[in-house]
Amino acid sequence: MSAQQQVPVVVLKEGTSETKGNQAQRNNITAAKAIAEIVRTSLGPRGMDKMLVDTLGDVTITNDGATILKEIDVEHPAAKMMVEISKATDNEVGDGTTSTVVLAGSLLEKAEELITKNVHPTVVVEGFKRASQKAIESLRQIAVKVDPTDKTFLRKIARTSMASKMVSANSQELADIVLDAVLAVAEKTDDRYKVDVDNIKVEKKAGGSIHDTKFVRGIVLDKEVVHGGMPKRIENAKIAVINSPLEIEKTEFDAKINISSPDQMQKFIEEENRMLKAMVDKVVAAGANVLLCQKGIDDIAQHYLAKAGILAVRRIKESDMYKLSRATGARIVNNLDELSASDLGFAKLVEERRVETEKWVFVEECKNPKSVSILVRGGSQRVVDEAERSVHDAIMVVKDVIEYPYVLVGGGAPEALASLKLREWASTLSGREQLAAEKFADGIETIPLVLAENAGMDPLDTQVNLRSKSSTGKARYGIDVINGRVTDMAAKDIYEPLAVKEQVINAATEAACMILRIDNVIAASKAKEPSNHSGPSGGGGGMGNMEM
Ligand code: ADP
Ligand code: MG
Prior knowledge:
Blueprint: E1 17-20, H1 21-40, E2 50-53, E3 59-62, H2 65-71, E4 73-74, H3 77-92, H4 97-116, H5 121-142, E5 144-145, H6 151-163, H7 171-185, E6 187-189, E7 192-194, E8 200-206, E9 214-216, E10 219-221, E11 233-242, H8 262-286, E12 290-293, H9 299-307, E13 311-313, H10 318-328, E14 332-333, E15 345-355, E16 358-364, E17 372-378, H11 381-403, E18 406-409, H12 413-426, H13 431-454, H14 459-470, E19 477-480, E20 485-488, E21 495-497, H15 498-516, E22 520-523, E23 545-546
Parallel strand pairs: 4-23, 8-17, 11-12, 11-14, 12-13
Antiparallel strand pairs: 1-22, 2-3, 5-18, 6-7, 9-17, 10-16, 11-15, 15-16, 18-21, 19-20
Helix pairs in contact: 1-3, 1-4, 2-3, 3-4, 3-15, 4-13, 4-15, 5-12, 5-13, 5-15, 6-7, 6-11, 7-11, 8-9, 12-13
The structure holds adenosine-5'-diphosphate (ADP) and magnesium ion (MG).
Adenosine-5'-diphosphate binds next to helix 4, helix 6, helix 13 and strand 19.
């Protein structure tokens, strides 16, 4: 042997760490399971909330899986993937974020059992993928088609999504508010409905109680009327929505004006006045009695507007301008010269109201608005924040059903049935594939079992009871968490969108499979942190970082 062969070949940069094979897989599975463990106790109406404190000391209290995971700072790449699937589920369907993570964690746990028995991970992955398709097929078979405009069903869906939240006591009123909002902005093309949730403006303000949350058939602006002399309330408002300033524009470059006599000064001011008045005159000529402006309004223009009895608001956010236009039917006008009566929007009432310490303008009772608002109230900032998240979930589930009008009963009933069907199917397979399908069935059964566990029920009794009742072929036995029993969930009016359940299964399976396929983790050395900043394990304060 020549001496040369003994010189090591450096492939990876110095400081790079590499974990291989079984070890890598186990680390990843452990990290992902740890994340699932965090949110597990939050699942369902009897789930607990989490209090999260960030590095600045801000407190969030929530039950929402995606929010919990967003607030904690995870370090391990596999743990990060779990956080990502909950975010993706939140964006896609809005609900089921906790279920997704719990299911992914449980699938990984079941996979680990197989890998320990020397089943190759790719066999598990293949088996899981096929099983997930089977599970979705069996859910589709038992899903109930609903009329997407049937309010009674939509209300049940909205209430179920809020049943597990702090706002559950108010879920009836909130569900009605959400329904009004979503149905107002739903648009029908051909025979399908489409909902753009951006057209629902959710404003929140601490104060009052959740009970004071309101649906506004129009837009709430967190701005006040610009001038004290203007009317604060206008009925039958004719609204000009303008995105150019009512100001004399300053020149881009420095201009000097030489004035040699007081006379000229006077003329200069008069000319400015005249120009501003001319602008206001155009608004008056168009017949508007409300002016909503994206840019500034000069003091003098304000004075003339007030004199003309026009209510004006300035510096409105661009996103609100579009909503105002959709709510009132106004055309957003770029150039005041073009403003005409046909550009005006309409609202039965525009009024400035006091909301706690601030004054907000309500543009409401619009006819047939294509953009509406929900004003969320609640005793404290934490309460309003969580109420807003719950309203968001409810908006999303109602949207899910309007767009894809199939529902399933909740309380873990569909999961219990899917797991039963999967076991039947697994018995037709052979070899290792059968093992994977059976494990998948166990994994999906975790959802009802965790619901039961969180409700203080005995897991084993529940499992036996649930299996025997589900096998009667009726698709509806699930966990009645309030009474701690296995019952027919349809009688309880607990319904969930099929879209959510499909997303939960797809997202959880994808994440689990992706993690299972990894057999090598190559991590570059961390860039040096600045010396005044503690490292990842240095406990940077607050929640700190989770290292696994
Ligand atoms: P996720 O973030 O996954 O939506 P939740 O904490 O909202 O988690 O819990 C959702 C689960 O709780 C679903 O499986 C749903 O069917 C179930 N659930 C909701 N309301 C009830 C109820 N009243 N009884 C039993 N289960 C319920
Ligand atoms: Mg939920």
